[in-house]
Amino acid sequence: METTGIDSLAISIGNAHGFYKGAPKLQFELLAEIAQRCALPLVLHGGTGIPDADIRHAISMGIAKVNVGTEIRKAYVNALYQYTRENEKGDVRPFIKALRASVAGAAARYLENFTAPSLCSGAKEDEHGKSGS
Ligand SMILES: [Zn+2]
Asked: Which domain holds residue 90?
């Protein structure tokens, strides 16, 4: 891994992109083995739908970043449908505001549940991450 120049490592331990058909079952033994052998920050893609307790457990074992793009996109699409249902001739400004509020709410749930309080203080509502999914 040193020769690759990567600065984080996304791992596959039972996680997957998109919506899970059943409850995802993370392989914590495998995570423990990877965390022991890898000094790099570990990334978990497919965080949407993984139970909160499992995410907390994975973080405690070395996961430094959890990707939840599906959850964010779902919040956006839900707000889009709800707004257009309720506002047939709406102005674009409140429309954008409703979408932003929905996405911010979905993101805030993760920040509040999975970020150490010391890291969360000082976070601004309008800051956007640049991570893909
Ligand atoms: Zn991803």
From this structure: 9-127
Distance 13 CA to ligand 1 centre (A): 13
**Does 132 map to a domain?**
no
Contact 131, 67 (CB under 8 A): yes
CATH of the domain at 17: 3.20.20.70
DSSP alpha helix (H) spans, 14-91: 28-37, 52-60, 69-86
The answer on pLDDT for 11 being more than 90 is yes
Ligand 1 geometric centre to CA of 17 (Å): 6
**Does a structural domain hold residue 2?**
no
What pTM was computed for the model?
A: 0.78
pLDDT at residue 81 tops 50? yes
How many domains, the chain? 1
Could you tell me which residues come within 8 angstroms of residue 106 by beta carbon, excluding any fewer than 6 positions away?
A: 68, 71, 72, 74, 75
1 lies in a domain?
A: no
Say how many Å lie between the CA of residue 70 and the centre of ligand 1. Answer: 9
- pLDDT of 117 reads 55
